[in-house]
From TrEMBL:
Keywords: Cell membrane, Cobalamin biosynthesis, Membrane, Transmembrane, Transmembrane helix. It is found in: Cell membrane. Pathway: Cofactor biosynthesis; adenosylcobalamin biosynthesis. Belongs to the CobD/CbiB family. It comes from the Bacteria. Signal peptide: none annotated. This is Cobalamin biosynthesis protein CobD. The keyword Transmembrane applies. It comes from Dyella mobilis. HAMAP family: CobD_CbiB (MF_00024). Converts cobyric acid to cobinamide by the addition of aminopropanol on the F carboxylic group. The chain crosses the membrane at residues 47-66, 73-92, 146-168, 281-300. InterPro entries: Cobalamin_biosynth_CobD/CbiB (IPR004485). Its main location: membrane.
C-alpha cells in the first residue's frame, strides 16, 4: 500500500503545485546532457550509447543508493517527491487550455501562438481544425509520455524507475531526431525510449479505450496504429482518437514543407471541445490508475498477511 500512497501523494502534489517554476531538475539535467554531448559527440552509435549512459546511469545509481541508506519513511518521502517531479499532468492542461480558449473566442492567431509552444510542427499556416488537431494529438501522446509512463515505471521499480523513464524520455526529445547530426548519435536515446515506452504506451491506449468509445478505439488501434511511424505513439494516438471519436493525423507542416501522415480516429472534426475532451480522458485515466493501484496494493497486502 505504501507504493499506492506514494503515487497518490505525487499526483496530488502535481495537481496542487504543478511543475516547479524555478530550477526544475530536468532543466539542470538538460544542461548536463548538453555538456556531455559537447564532450563525447561523434557521428557513431557507440558515442550515443556512451553519452546516454553518462547522463542517466549515475543519477539512477545515486538515487538508489540514497534511498537504500534512508529510513523507510524518508525513502517513501523521496520516492513521492521524485515521482511528483517526473509527472506533467497539470502542466499538460496549462499548455493546451490556452489553445482551446483562443479557439473558442475565434482568435486563430492566439491559438496558433499557443499551440506552437507544445508541438514541433509549423503553426503559422494552420487553420482552426488543424490547430485543434495538433493540440488534441499533443494531449493524447503526452498523456503517456508525461503521466502514465512515469506512473507505470514507478509502480514497477519505484523512484529509480520513474527517474529512468523521465530522463530517457528527455534524452529522446533532445537527441532522438532523425537529422544528419543525430541519426547515429541519437540512435540509443530513441531506441531506449521505445523500449521503455512499449508497455506503458499500450496500457495508455487500453486506458483511453476503456474510458471512451471502446469499439471505435479498438478498431482504430488495430487498423491505424501500425501505419504510424512511432511504434508507441501510434497505439496511443489511434486509440485516443477512436475513444474520442474525432479525426486526427493527416498532413502536417514541418520545417517548411507538408509531410504526409496517416489518418487517425474517425468521427467529427477536431475543435476546441475535442481538446477539452482529451484532457478529461487523461484525467479519468489518472483516477482509474490510482484506483487500480490501490486495489492491487490491498490485494497484495492481504495476500502477504494471510
Amino acid at each position: 500500500m505504501s507504493m499506492a500512497l506514494a503515487m497518490l501523494a505525487a499526483v496530488l502534489m502535481d495537481a496542487w503545485l504543478g511543475e516547479p517554476r524555478r530550477a526544475h531538475p530536468l532543466v539542470g539535467f538538460g544542461r548536463v546532457a548538453s555538456g556531455i554531448e559537447q564532450r563525447v559527440y561523434a557521428d557513431r552509435r557507440v558515442a550515443g550509447v556512451l553519452a546516454w549512459s553518462l547522463a542517466v546511469l549515475p543519477a539512477i545509481a545515486l538515487l538508489w543508493g540514497i534511498q537504500r541508506a534512508m529510513p523507510v519513511w524518508a525513502s517513501w518521502c523521496v520516492g513521492a517527491a521524485v515521482l511528483y517531479l517526473t509527472l506533467g499532468w497539470r502542466s499538460l492542461g496549462e499548455h493546451v487550455r490556452p489553445v482551446a480558449a483562443a479557439l473558442a473566442k475565434g482568435d486563430l492567431d492566439a491559438a496558433r501562438a499557443a499551440v506552437s509552444r507544445v508541438v514541433s510542427r509549423d503553426t503559422a499556416a494552420l487553420n482552426d481544425v488543424q490547430v485543434s488537431a495538433a493540440a488534441t494529438e499533443s494531449v493524447l501522446e503526452n498523456g503517456n509520455d508525461a503521466v502514465f509512463g512515469a506512473l507505470f515505471w514507478f509502480a514497477l521499480l519505484g523512484a529509480p524507475g520513474a527517474l529512468l523513464y523521465r530522463l530517457a524520455n528527455t534524452l529522446d526529445a533532445t537527441w532522438g531526431y532523425r537529422t544528419a547530426r543525430y541519426e547515429r548519435f541519437g540512435w540509443a536515446a530513441a531506441r531506449i525510449d521505445d523500449v521503455l515506452n512499449f508497455l506503458p504506451a499500450r496500457l495508455t491506449a487500453l486506458t483511453y479505450a476503456l474510458l471512451g468509445h471502446f469499439d471505435t478505439a479498438w478498431r482504430c488501434w488495430r487498423t491505424q496504429a501500425p501505419q504510424w511511424d512511432s511504434p508507441n505513439a501510434g497505439p496511443v494516438m489511434a486509440a485516443g482518437a477512436g475513444a474520442l471519436r474525432v479525426r486526427l493525423g493527416g498532413p502536417a507542416p514541418y520545417h517548411g514543407r507538408w509531410e504526409a501522415r496517416p489518418e487517425l480516429g474517425e468521427g467529427e472534426l477536431p475543435s476546441a471541445a475535442s481538446i477539452s475532451r482529451a484532457l478529461h480522458l487523461v484525467s479519468k485515466g489518472v483516477l482509474m490508475w490510482l484506483i487500480c493501484t490501490w486495489v492491487l496494493g490491498f490485494l497484495l497486502d492481504g495476500g502477504v498477511h494471510a
